[in-house]
Amino acid sequence: MRLLIVEDDERIASYLKKGLREEGFTIDHASNGEEGLDYAISGDYTAVIMEVALPVMDGITVIQQMNSFGVLTPTLFLSSRNSVQDRVKGLQAGADDYLIKPFAFSELIARIRAVIRRSKPIEEKSVLKLDTLTVDLARRKVMREEDFIELQPREFELLVFLMQNVGRVVSKTMIMESVWNYNFDPHTNVVESRICRLRDKLDRDYHRKYITTIRGVGYKMI
Description:
Layout: E1 2-6, H1 10-22, E2 26-30, H2 33-42, E3 47-51, H3 59-68, E4 75-79, H4 84-93, E5 97-100, H5 105-119, E6 127-130, E7 133-136, E8 141-144, E9 147-149, H6 153-164, H7 172-180, H8 190-203, E10 211-214, E11 218-221
């Protein structure tokens, strides 16, 4: 997946480029709004990560110009402006999300993946498969071998998220952002409890275990 970073602070830009490349993204970088607009309208990007307060052309104007050119690439604003009014202005201009600096890199990744996922068609695939595990998205039906696995709605969404990230470690923050659609509370154990229930239904009676815990990091579907 190819991302465009529009950020004039070279220190922050370098940090973003390094971290996002390590996550497997291909990165282009523009250091001002005008350059960022040129990249956005001429390139095929999965998402744009853009500072609001940019030289030459600010981020609000950039996204408005993108829209006028018919460029609907999902965009996440970064800004140190943290008032409700600033956030509302950014979202009303057309941004898909707004993240306040300073931010945790894990939260940035979670938000990027969330805006990318929301921008995709509802179902790119109607069925997800992993070995003997089958998840029918349209009928919300889960089968393991010949057995029907009955899941609660949130457990089903959690399984779908894990299946969409097979082989990748996902943190509790990413799960909360993607499955529960709200920011991570470090004091809640809701993720652990739902993972435990899902694992009990999915893995308990089978030799192969699909869900593994990466201690101190998160979970992985294997």
